Automatic annotation (TrEMBL):
Primary role: Catalyzes the reduction of dTDP-6-deoxy-L-lyxo-4-hexulose to yield dTDP-L-rhamnose.
Protein name: dTDP-4-dehydrorhamnose reductase
Annotated GO MF terms: dTDP-4-dehydrorhamnose reductase activity
Family the entry assigns: Belongs to the dTDP-4-dehydrorhamnose reductase family.
Record pathway: Carbohydrate biosynthesis; dTDP-L-rhamnose biosynthesis
Catalytic activity, reaction form: dTDP-beta-L-rhamnose + NADP(+) = dTDP-4-dehydro-beta-L-rhamnose + NADPH + H(+)
A biological-process GO annotation: O antigen biosynthetic process
Cofactors: Mg(2+)
Pfam families the UniProt entry points to: RmlD_sub_bind
Domain (RmlD-like substrate binding) ranges: 2-129
Organism, as annotated: Neiella marina
High-level lineage: Bacteria, Pseudomonadati, Pseudomonadota, Gammaproteobacteria, Alteromonadales
Length: 167
């Protein structure tokens, strides 16, 4: 069994980077629901693979991913606001899918962290700029310091392409 969870089980009140052994401290309903779901999965299926992932990046509109959210923000506000003091856990959707498949084929069990930004540590503003350039999105980007958090998910057992090389 595979269950995908989220970096949101860690609240910004306690900075990362987070290891799989770091205590979860969700403060919002989504993070609490995901942590409770992790616990329910382990209870029902102790051999499950649980993968915590960050905000996913896709190159097409539609769905719940970074490009879509930023495109909507641009349409609604005429600009995209991006904090340079937030280091998000994030990966390209295709890289996450390939890594999940590899873990399943290897027969892995237990809790894993998947984050293409874990090593590169690109801040959100830099990611938004690179994504804007890569996809020719035409966004007006307003860089600020409105959100501070190191959200990176570390796991030495997982090798993913570095986000800095993919964007």
């Amino acid at each position: 069994m595979l269950f995908t969870s989220t970096a949101m089980v860690f609240d910004a009140s306690s900075d990362g980077p987070y290891q799989t052994t770091s205590p979860a401290n969700p403060q919002d309903d989504y993070g609490r629901m995901k942590l409770a779901s992790e616990q329910a999965v382990v209870s029902a299926c102790p051999d499950a693979l649980i993968a915590r992932i960050g905000w996913q990046i896709h190159d097409r509109r539609g769905g719940n991913h970074m490009f879509e959210a930023l495109s909507q923000q641009m349409e609604q506000n005429g600009k995209v606001t991006a904090s340079e003091t937030w280091i998000p856990a994030t990966s390209l959707m295709s890289d996450t899918a390939e890594t999940l498949m590899a873990l399943l084929l290897q027969g892995q069990r237990g809790l894993f962290h998947l984050d293409s930004n874990a090593v590169a540590s690109l801040n959100f503003a830099e990611i938004v700029k690179r994504l804007n350039n890569k996809l020719n999105a035409g966004w007006k980007i307003d860089v600020d310091q409105s959100y501070r958090h190191d959200q990176r998910l570390l796991d030495a057992r997982v090798v993913m392409p570095r986000l800095s090389c993919r964007l």
